[in-house]
Amino acid sequence: MKSQFSDQQLSHIIDQSLIYQCACPAQVAKHLIGLRDLYEYQQNCINQSATDKMVHERIAADAQRAHAALEECLREVLMIEQWDMETLAMPASLQKTPRSF
Amino acid sequence: MVSLPSVGLWIVDSSAYTRSLLSDRLALMADCSLHEYAAWTAIELVTFSQAASVLVLNHHVNDASPFDFLQQVKRVAPHSLVVVLSSPGAPHRAFEAANKAHACIDMIFDKPIDLEQLGGYLSERITLLRQQQLLNQEHLDLLRFLPTAALQRIFSQPSPGKAELFDMAVMFTDIRDSTQLIVRESARNYFAKLNRVLASQARLIRFYEGMVVKTTGDGLLAVFEGAARCHLALKCANAIQSSLEAQGTPVGIGISDGLVLTGILGTTEHLHFDVIGAHVHLAARLCSLAVAGEILATRDVATKARFNFPTQPMHDSIVVRGFDEAVPCIHIKI
């Protein structure tokens, strides 16, 4: 599956967000990981019939499409929030003080 | 009022930002003594293992592998609670695989986490840890109360593997229908009730100069020594049944008397006192046969006790390994 972000980078984005209340990019990253798992799962499914093959191909193709759309979404969200696109570091301005959420 | 044992909450997180989020919120939720670390290498495991402890490791994908550390934690503090916060996907799968191989993690939460959910989970588990601690304290208090000089000798110089034979009355107790109680009540309520039932039995055992050897899930193993041991064991069993009947949690009790092997088992890191022998098996067997509110004892115990209980002979004698012949027994229903 073609991707803009590596697994490591997605995990890095999630690690910095930690909690639901300040984690919009992390939520997107989490679903990207889920789509990658889904795609991988389909690739490893056994085709016992022509129907199986059609089902797996359809799911894999749509997982790829959804993945591409969400990756683009993540890239734009990170740019809007002014993350460092090289290091993928969360800008300090987005970090909540512990009691502010 | 009994003071609650302290529980240490140890947060390990290499990011100062997420560490501050975690510690600030969990300190409010969990009511524990808080310890924060940027790296697990800074934790002194000896200190960690000295009290009931909860470890919350927020793992970042760029951190070093924590698996050796987590195994060490469970080795030095097997009753501690280990919670890992992980990124989903490959990091989560790596933790699951490590846990499958080494059973070193109690719970994995995928990030981003719901702090309310994490806090709720920790609060519940910390309550259970505290209750377990209370039970352990009660047990240790009892072990300090040794009825005879003979057993004091064993405890004053604990030497693993060294054993001595004593004449003892051996008593097992066990809550009846505990499975139904567990299903009917929440785990927390059941554990609290179990703690009350065991503590109340332990107090009575101490009052009648017995000694709790260990808890056995829903019950206790206790021993009595000296010339009046059978009398004291039966009086104690009677008092336990009366007290627990009033509390609505009757137990079954089995008592036998004879030579048992006593000693300290374990290693220098973990020692415990235990009793073994045919009469221990027999008391356990009688306990398993006793219905709620009933005391089953060998006829020998009743004869030696010289205690005026309304007893009835059991129709069937009990066959237990270690005895050449079936053992005649009596039952006492309170």
Summarize the structure.
The complex is a heterodimer of chains A (101) and B (334). Chain A is mainly alpha-helical.
Order of helices and strands of chain A: HHH
How many angstroms separate the termini of chain B? 31 Å
In total, how many beta strands of chain B? 13
Given the structure, what is the number of helices of chain B?
11
State the helical fraction of chain A: 55-70%
Quaternary structure classification: heterodimer
Radius of gyration of chain B: 24 Å
Q: Quick one: which chains have the greatest interface?
A: A-B, 25 and 25 residues
Report on this structure.
- The complex is a heterodimer of chains A (101) and B (334).
- In chain A, 62% of the residues lie in helices and 0% in strands.
- Chain A is mostly helical and 101 residues long.
- The longest helix of chain A is centred in the middle third of the chain and has 31 residues, at 50-80.
- The relative contact order of chain A is 0.17.
- Chain B is α/β, with parallel strands linked by helices and 334 residues long.
- Helices cover 44% and strands 26% of the residues of chain B.
- Chain B has helices spanning 16-30, 45-49, 67-76, 90-102, 115-144, 149-156, 178-184, 187-207, 229-247, 278-289, 299-305, and strands at residues 7-13, 33-37, 52-58, 81-86, 107-110, 163-175, 211-215, 219-224, 251-266, 271-276, 294-298, 312-313, 329-333.
- In chain B, strands 6, 7, 8, 9, 10, 11, 12 and 13 form an 8-stranded mixed sheet that branches. In chain B, strands 2-1-3-4-5 form a 5-stranded parallel sheet, sandwiched between helices.
- In chain B, strand 3 (52-58), helix 3 (67-76) and strand 4 (81-86) form a beta-alpha-beta unit.
- In chain B, helix 1 (16-30) crosses helix 5, helix 5 packs parallel to helix 8 (187-207) and helix 9 (229-247) packs across helix 11 (299-305).
- The radius of gyration of chain B is 24 Å and the shape is elongated.
- The chains are: A mainly alpha (101), B alpha/beta (334).
- At the A-B interface, helix 1 and helix 2 of A face helix 1 of B.
